Prior knowledge:
Elements: E1 8-14, H1 21-26, E2 33-38, H2 45-49, E3 56-58, H3 64-74, E4 79-82, E5 87-88, H4 91-104, E6 110-113, E7 115-119, E8 122-123, E9 134-139, E10 143-148, E11 151-156, E12 160-162, E13 167-169, H5 175-195, H6 202-206, H7 208-219, H8 227-267
Parallel strand pairs: 1-2, 1-4, 2-3, 6-12, 7-13
Antiparallel strand pairs: 4-9, 5-13, 6-9, 7-8, 10-11
Amino acid sequence: xxxxxxxxxxxxxxxxxxxxxxxxxxxxxxxxxxxxxxxxxxxxxxxxxxxxxxxxxxxxxxxxxxxxxxxxxxxxxxxxxxxxxxxxxxxxxxxxxxxxxxxxxxxxxxxxxxxxxxxxxxxxxxxxxxxxxxxxxxxxxxxxxxxxxxxxxxxxxxxxxxxxxxxxxxxxxxxxxxxxxxxxxxxxxxxxxxxxxxxxxxxxxxxxxxxxxxxxxxxxxxxxxxxxxxxxxxxxxxxxxxxxxxxxxxxxxxxxxxxxxxxxxxxxxxxxxxxxxxxxxxx
Length: 283
C-alpha cells in the first residue's frame, strides 16, 4: 500500500507586494492550502492574493517573528511551507519537496532549503549569499518561533534534513531598493541588540565590517563576479557597520536622556512644610 503524501499549507506574510505576489503564489499552486497574512497593504496585493486563495487574513504588523508565527498558527495541514513574497519555488524544488515528504516525512520534523538570490542581472552562486540554508518546510505541530527581528528562527523538535534544489529569491529590485532595505533592517537589528542589553564596542565597527567584506569578496569568491561582486561585498560590510553604529547612537541617546533627567531632578528646589509656601502654618 502506497503511503499518501502528507498535505502542505503554504504561508506567506506580505505588505505592499503587488509586484511580487502573483509570481510567488503561482509557484505555490501545487500546495494543498495557501494562507496569506497581509499587513493592510495599500496597493493591489490583497486583490491579487484573493485570486489564488480564500485564506487571506489581514493583521497589523507585529514584527517578522510574531507575524510569521501567527501565519503558522493559521495553517491547517500537517506540514507548513514558509515562503516570502519575493521568493519563487522552481519546479525542481517542488519535485524534491514532494519526494522528500513521501520518502522521509515520517523520519524528519523539518527540511531546510538553500536560497539562490537573483540580483544585478545574475544568479549569485558565489559572493556570500549562497547557499544560506534556512528551515522552510516543517511539521506544523513540531515547530515554534525564536530568534529576534529581523532574524527570526524556526525552532524544531526533531531532526532536520537538507534539500538540494534552491528556493529562488528576488531580494532587491535595484540598488536604490537595496540601500533602502539596508537602512531599514539595520535600524531594526540595532533595536534588537539594544533590547538584548548588548553594549557597543569599538571593535564592532572596526573589525566586523572588515571581516564581512573579506568573507563575501575573497572567501566566497565574490571577486569573480567583477564590479557587482565588489559592490555586494561593500554593501554587506556597510550593513554590519551601520547596525553597530546605530546601536552606539541608541546608547548615546539613552545615556544623554538619562543624564538630562538626572540633572533636571537635581536642579529642582526642595520644599519643606511651612517654608516658602503661601498659606503655611503661622501665616
